[in-house]
């Protein structure tokens, strides 16, 4: 059998040229379709569908605040910028934005759920259920019994974790934490709704919880010994290795001057 003859150079050149022209035409066609789609009014953003949490912001308000900040059409809108725009709205923690063919955006929102105030009373910062600090209008907070947490920057989650661990311990004796403070040196201090101040000492959740558990289990016995209720507690110091020190309203361990003279 004879071998096939090689294809002449001019034929190969013609085939390559035809292929190149075909590819170029295909790309040109795709570019034309893309250009048409980018400019066609049918793909201009026609609306935003809002899902998820809208307790703090209505869908109408969200669309009015965010829509002017969006640019482009269905194909060119920057979803990351759109997400950032929604997340700058007060009380919005997270937004997931998707395209919804042919001309809409679909956004699913997660709002902050405030569980505590953060920092000094002069500031309008709050802590959400994830331990994250956010800013909002304090007047929008419906709960009037939120505790106030305070501590170094970036440690709000740790302070919230400690509050959740020891608050039930005080609730067992009908007391409640109004303020929990973490110092820059790692010391914990709580102020109760009765006005008492509790020095909890240093340590992690397990260590502080252990000291607090011992304290609340014996406090009723200590106060009843002097004919007092637990809400007469003025202060307590749990930083002692073998126990704690307390001050109870109306009870003193200082001997009056007359008794001191008689003892002499």
Question: Helices, strands, pairings?
Answer:
Layout: H1 9-39, E1 47-52, H2 59-66, H3 79-87, E2 92-100, E3 104-111, E4 114-118, E5 125-128, E6 133-135, E7 148-150, H4 156-171, E8 177-182, E9 187-192, E10 197-202, H5 205-225, E11 233-237, E12 245-248, H6 257-263
Parallel strand pairs: 1-3, 4-7, 7-8, 10-11
Antiparallel strand pairs: 2-3, 4-5, 5-6, 8-9, 9-10, 11-12
Helix pairs in contact: 4-5
Q: What do you see in this structure?
A:
With 264 residues, the chain is α/β, with parallel strands linked by helices. The chain folds into two domains: 42-111, Ubiquitin-like (UB roll) (Roll), CATH 3.10.20.310; 114-248, Rossmann fold, CATH 3.40.50. 35% of the residues lie in helices and 25% in strands. The chain has six helices and twelve strands. It has a nine-stranded mixed β-sheet with strand order 6-5-4-7-8-9-10-11-12, covered by helices on one side. Strands 1-3-2 form a three-stranded mixed β-sheet, with helices on one face. Helix 4 (156-171) runs parallel beside helix 5. It is elongated, with a radius of gyration of 34 Å. The protein starts with 8 loop residues before the first helix and ends with a helix. Mean pLDDT is 85; it is low at 259-264.
